[in-house]
Specification:
heterodimer, A: about 110 residues, mainly beta, 7-stranded mixed sheet, 4-stranded antiparallel sheet, B: 5-stranded mixed sheet, globular
Chain lengths: ~110, ~110
C-alpha cells in the first residue's frame, strides 16, 4: 500500500466553476476525513466518513460543498460555484476506527 | 477550537536537541497528547503520543509533566529535514473525535 493518494495535486479554476477532488485511502482503513488548510493555519476539519456513512460535518462545510464515499472506498469532495475564498489546500486522511491517521499530500486549489 | 498553546516559531541549530513546548492546562483525564508535524507541501505526519508517562520512539521523545498541563516534544539531534510546523493536539482516545489542529510551532533548523 502506498498510503493515502489525492488527485489532482493542483487545480486552478475560474470563479463560479465546479471542481471535484478524489481521495484514495489506505485500503484497511474504514474512516476517511477531509480537511482544509489555508496559508499560515493548521488543517481545519470538514467532514468524515465511517465506511460509506458520513458521520460528522463541520459548520465550515457550506451547502456548496458535498462529499461522498460510495462503497466505503475512495471519496470525492465537490465544490460548486467556487469562490476565491475557497482557495486552499484540501487534505484527506484515513484511519482505522480513529487511530493511525495517515494524511495524503493534498490538493491545492486556486480560484482565479 | 484547539485546546493547546504553542509558540509561533522556534529556531534550532543543526545537530542540537530541539525542545518544543506545549501547554494544555484544560486537559482531562481521558485525553492523550498527540504530536504531528507538517513539512512544506506535504500532509501532517504522526510523530508520537502519550497519556501521562514519558514516551520515546525512533523519531522523538515526549515528556509530559506530572500534572499533565504541559508537555515537551524533543528531537534529540535536529537535522535540516526536521524543519516543519509541529502541532500539539489533545484528543480523547475514544477515537471518535477528529483531530483538531491549532496553528502549531514553525521549527527552523539552521545549519
Amino acid at each position: 500500500d502506498t498510503g493515502v493518494s489525492q488527485d489532482p495535486r493542483h487545480k486552478i479554476t475560474k470563479r463560479g466553476q465546479n471542481v471535484t477532488f478524489r481521495c484514495d485511502p489506505i485500503s484497511e482503513h474504514n474512516r476517511l476525513y477531509w480537511y482544509r488548510q489555508t496559508l499560515g493555519q493548521g488543517p481545519e476539519f470538514l467532514t468524515y466518513f465511517q465506511n460509506e456513512a458520513q458521520l460528522e460535518k463541520s459548520r465550515l462545510l457550506s451547502d456548496r460543498f458535498s462529499a461522498e464515499r460510495p462503497k466505503g472506498s475512495f471519496s470525492t469532495l465537490e465544490i460548486q460555484r467556487t469562490e476565491q475564498g475557497d482557495s486552499a489546500m484540501y487534505l484527506c486522511a484515513s484511519s482505522f476506527e480513529g487511530y493511525g491517521y495517515t494524511f495524503g499530500s493534498g490538493t491545492r486549489l486556486t480560484v482565479v | 477550537d484547539a485546546k493547546t498553546t504553542q509558540p509561533t516559531s522556534m529556531d534550532c541549530a543543526e545537530g542540537r536537541a530541539a525542545n518544543l513546548p506545549c501547554n494544555h492546562s484544560t486537559i482531562s483525564g481521558n485525553e492523550y497528547v498527540y504530536w504531528y508535524r507538517q513539512i512544506h507541501s506535504q500532509g501532517p505526519q504522526y510523530i508520537i503520543h502519550g497519556l501521562k508517562n514519558n514516551e520515546t520512539n525512533e523519531m522523538a521523545s515526549l515528556i509530559i509533566t506530572e500534572d499533565r498541563k504541559s508537555s515537551t516534544l524533543i528531537l534529540p539531534h535536529a537535522t535540516l529535514r526536521d524543519t516543519a510546523v509541529y502541532y500539539c493536539i489533545v484528543r480523547s482516545n475514544s477515537g471518535n473525535t477528529p483531530l483538531v489542529f491549532g496553528k502549531g510551532t514553525r521549527l527552523s533548523v539552521i545549519a
